[in-house]
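Hey, I'm writing a tutorial for new members on how sequence and structure tokens pair up, and I'd like a real worked example in the thread rather than a made-up one. If someone can provide the structure for the chain below, I'll link this post from the tutorial.
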Amino acid sequence: MADASQDIPARQGFVPSATPAVPPSSTVPPVAPPPVAPAPAAAAPITSLSANQLFDQLARIEDKASRIEDKYARSEALLSRVEDKVDGATGRMNEAARQADLAALRNEVRGLGERTRRLPGTGALVLTAVITAVLTVVLMVAVQRLNLDGLLPPKANAAALR
């Protein structure tokens, strides 16, 4: 037996009505609308909360924000103390490096001082110069008295004059 609803789409230009033309005694069960999923809890209307609950929730949010600000301030203070300690340590390291440079310079000056202490002093140099001058004069007088001028090398000008 053919159903009347199967013949309706076959006709051209037919717009079915909102209610099918099927008699209630038909064997076709009525189509139920699809089930609607319940709305999530987050999408629940805010109007279901009272004003006191909203103020309490706002107060809790403000408390959390103030605690976060306090933690941030403590962290910032801690970082500034760490920065100060690092600056102090850097200064001490620079001072230690300068001290090491000064120690190396002291060692060099000490070594140079030890080498110069072994050199003759001013008195010894003056005495040596005086002795050398006196001996040179004595030897020149002896050469002239003993007529040993021939042992001296001839002067370039003296050879031209003779």
